[in-house]
Amino acid sequence: MTTTPRAPRTQDLGRTLRRPAVGLAATAAAAALLLSACSTGADAAGTGASADAEPVAGGDLSFAITVDSHCIDPQQVGNNDAIAAARQTVASLTAQDPESGEILPWLAESWDVNDDASSYTFHLRDGATFADGTPIDAAAVKTNFDAIVDLGAVASLGSQYLVGYAGTTVVDEHTVTVDFDEPSAQFLQATSTFSLGLLSPDSAKLSAEDRCAGKYVGSGPFAVKSYTQDQEIVLEKVKGYSWGSEANAHTGEAYLDTVTFKVVPEASVRTGSLQSGQIDATAALNAVDLPQFDGNGFWLQYRANPGVVFNLFPNESSPLAADEAVRTAIVKGIDRQQIVDTVLTPQDEPATGVLSHSTPLFEDAGDLLAYDPEGAKKILDDAGWTEGADGIREKDGQKLTTTVTFWQVPEPLELVQQQLRQIGVDLQLKHVTVAESEAAKESGDFDFDYYNLTRSDADVLRTIFSANARNINQRDPEKVDQLLDESAAATDADERKKLVTEASALLIERGHAIPVYELSTTIAAADRVQGLTFEASSRLDFYDAWVTDGAGE
Amino acid sequence: MTRYVLRRAGQGVFVLWAAFTVAFFVLYLLPSDPAALVASGGGEVSQVDPAQLAALRAEYGLDRPILVQYGDALLSALRGDFGDSYVSGASAASMVAQALPETLKLTGAALLVAVVGGTAVAVASVFPRARFLRQALSALPPLGVALPTFFVGLVLLQWFSFRLPVFPAIGNEGAISLVLPTITLAVPAGAQLAQILSRSLRGTLGEPYVSTAWAKGASRTRVHLAHALRNAAIPAFTVLGVIVGGLLGGAVVTETVFSRVGLGRLTVQSVNQQDVPVVLAIVVFSALVFVVVTLVVDLVYPLLDPRIQLRAPRAASRRATSRTQRPTAVTA
Fold first, then answer.
1. How far does chain A reach from its first CA to its final CA, in angstroms?
2. CA B272 to CA A392: how far, in whole Å?
3. pLDDT of residue B42
4. A71 and B CB contact within 8 Å
5. Interface pTM, i.e. ipTM
6. Interval B201-212 mean pLDDT
7. 3-class secondary structure, B3
8. pLDDT digits (tens, 9 = 90+) for A205-240
9. Chain A residues 405-434 within an 8 A CB cutoff of chain B
């Protein structure tokens, strides 16, 4: 959660000019000149700290994304790039404070939750409307939630948040009650996400195709102006929007006239386009390219994604991963700091728990994840795994060779492979496509799975691990499941934190979770862009964003 | 002639059917489930309700026996209906139709540049009197063939978009955005063409009728351009059919590097998302392009060389041309 927006300083410029890359230097110099002109023109106190300058309305911003997933309906999308655009087009019942994780009012002014977190009553604010002027009332909320349930699996995220949905009751024009068949403490945070963001009741009647094509009417500070598949999504500001949440810096209309999301599949082209001013910002640069945008007319901002960190998930129905000694030895045999230091960027951090440190209710469990190769060897020795001639341990003629199936960048796991080798564990890497990895997950045909999951609510732990939910470990119920299931019903934050912390520790101690490192998202932007930041789920928030040369249009 | 065209059209229909069938079963045999992929929302989902997943599979018709799915898909495809995209819900045929114009612009421009450029290089590699010049120019086509499209695109971008901001690096706006992608796509195609043409030109220049032309006092230019080039063009023309297909394939890389909309990008995205209806529509369309282009090439032969006759009976046309330049004898 570190921010480093910086105006270029003279020494940065000098360093740039000495580079042989004439074009780059010229661009940087031009940007610097432009910016210094701006900051003298503005009434900033002359220090050039443009981050403190007063936002100006107007102007356009272009932002590069990596892929167009052929759908931008906020209630259907699950891909990060699609989310970046979709998030801006809907407002939600609640908002989440990125710093504290606290749930704040947005379209709902206040809410009541019953004792076992199975019934939520929202009191809507007065005067809020959809982009076409239709009022946002209790009936509209009901239409939306019912529609998401009807969408089923296509509403990939929303339908999960509404598991156990019993129905929504319109109490009066501004009061609405959502009931669940079972406790669902995660629902309050879910109402702050784009997946449960509100579309106009008419939009709920549209076909999935029209909604994917952006023909819906949303409730957010921006509306879809045009969407050209595989090319760009253009959003324009909604006039008269004046109900920004407390999680943001202002409440009126968005500052930017338009935001254009350009689809640029090639990482090196994104880098060159940002460097040459053809795009203003992106959150998808290669790690090696990041340092050149730290200063020199650009700024970087990064944040660890909340939710479950990159973990090795043992499939305990497979013979080797069923052995607790093997799992706990692997937990101790991974040197997380070394992974971050050698194959990742300074923005990445080693895991200090099953959840990342930016997740609400997070409690540091770093001591359980300390690198302890001797301890790991001892566990394996005690369990009867003895070192064979080739350094790989074996027991009863079986070698300690196991496989992890994954599609993500391989470098961190390649290092894990080397580290585990030191304790006599042979971890084979099976690098597959996303589609194949989904197939493996579905069929349960893997020893270890590997991924992360972004969600700014600790309930993500339960949905993945609980034997009564996803049951990623394919194991029988035990004590930890009781804790997890109780946490779903806990409305008191302290009680919930206690349950989640205890469950996290148990998951690591029993080797059900083998955390590796925290995923982080990094925004790289030109200095003309200000105020572009992350919301609590590390999704991009363009509402407070503005451009220094935007005034006067 | 009519019988020949009809027979070739029949063969074309077979090729289309075969392409459709192979693609269908290959996609079916892939280990993953398109419905699960849609429900996984790009890997961000922790838990998918099996009942909802089953409902989605039923909606896509994936719960039916494979042969029923195949028969249904084939019958619909005959009517030009490839079904709706699993991801966006739009009709697959309309998605292809929407992406097509941009790819046609790009491949059309690249074909033009490749033919003009390739012919120029080929002629230039045999024309000059200076031996070293001919040798230097002859080295160009192999170089062009060897350079990966990806690499050429990135180098062009680095120099003419990032360092010298002359051309835009991304997007489809205006003719100016076509320049770098066209060059990128034209390099391998033009080089391939130049390779065939210059070899064929060298052969033709040794033919007795060329000696006759020299003896009759024809100028160097006339011998090369009027006498030799026309005959030498036939093998190159044969390759052209393959090159057009290659351009469609090359569009995948070029459109990705230059962030252009088009059929290539649609292909990549649909394959990644296992959007089966869209992939099938693209496969059939590409097969159609191949069929039409090879047919057109064959129909144009007689115009280039009157000795070539198109006849329906088996191998008759081959035999008729066997003493001259056989168009089918040259392959890339």
1. 34
2. 37
3. 59
4. yes
5. 0.83
6. 88
7. helix
8. 898 889 999 999 999 999 999 999 889 999 999 999
9. 407, 433-434
A 10 A CB-CB count for A434 gives: 17
Residue A542 has pLDDT above 90, yes or no: yes
Contacts of B259 in chain A (CB under 8 A): 231, 262-266, 269
Interstrand relation of A103-105 and A94-96 (parallel, antiparallel or unpaired)? antiparallel
- Helix (H) / strand (E) containing B109: helix B92-124
- Residue A119 has φ and ψ, to the nearest 5°, of -145, 130
DSSP string, A202-262: HHHTS-HHHHHTT-----SSEEEEEEETTTEEEEEEPTT-----TTSS--SS-S-SEEEEE
Distance CA A344, CA A219 (A): 38
Confidence band for B322, pLDDT divided at 50, 70 and 90: very low
Instruction: Give the list of residues 6+ apart from residue A106 with CB closer than 8 angstroms, or none.
Output: A91, A92, A93, A94, A95, A192, A243, A245, A247
Contacts of residue B41 in chain A, CB cutoff 8 Å?
A: 77-79, 156-157
Res A16: pLDDT: 31
Backbone angles phi, psi at A229, to 5 degrees: -55, 140
- Mean pLDDT over A440-461 rounds to 87
Q: What is the pLDDT of residue B36?
A: 80
Answer yes or no: is pLDDT of B240 > 90: no
pTM, whole model, 2 decimals? 0.85
Nearest-angstrom CA–CA distance, B314 and B332: 24
Q: pLDDT confidence of B220, banded at 50, 70, 90?
A: confident
Top residue of B38, B45, B270 to mutate, by most chain A CBs within 10 Å, is B45
The mean pLDDT of A334-342, rounded to a whole number, is 94
> d(Cα A159, Cα A71) in Å, to the nearest integer?
17
Residues of A in contact with B49 (CB under 8 A): 153, 159-160, 163
Would you state the pLDDT for residue B59? 86
**Nearest Cα to A448, choosing from A396, A512, A370?**
A512
**Percent of chain A at pLDDT exceeding 90:** 71
- pLDDT for B241: 82
Of B45, B87, B95, the CB nearest to A69: B87
Distances (CA, A) of A53 to A36, A47, A540, B213: 13, 11, 21, 81
In A256-318, where do the E strands start and end?
Answer: 258-263, 281-282, 298-304, 307-314
Q: Which ranges of A383-433 does DSSP label H, i.e. alpha helix?
A: 411-422
pLDDT of residue A288: 84
Give the closest residue to A464 by CA, choosing from A306, A307, A303: A307
The residue-averaged pLDDT of B200-217 equals 88
CA separation, residue A503 to residues A354, A363, A448, A483, A488 (Å)? 10, 11, 20, 6, 12
Rg (CA), chain B: 24
What's the token pair of residue A535? 């919301």
Higher local confidence (pLDDT), A91 or B318? A91
φ, ψ dihedrals at B302, nearest 5°: -60, -30
- Tokens (6 digits) for B51: 């009942």
| Tokens (6 digits) for A28 | 């940087």
Closest CA to A128 of A259, A211, A245: A245
Flag whether pLDDT at B138 surpasses 60: yes
Contacts of A267 in chain B (CB under 8 A): none
Residue A9 has pLDDT above 80, yes or no: no
Give me the sign of the Cα torsion angle B284, B289, B292, B294.
negative
What CA–CA distance (Å, rounded) separates A282 from A299?
A: 11
The identity of residue A174, as a single letter, is H
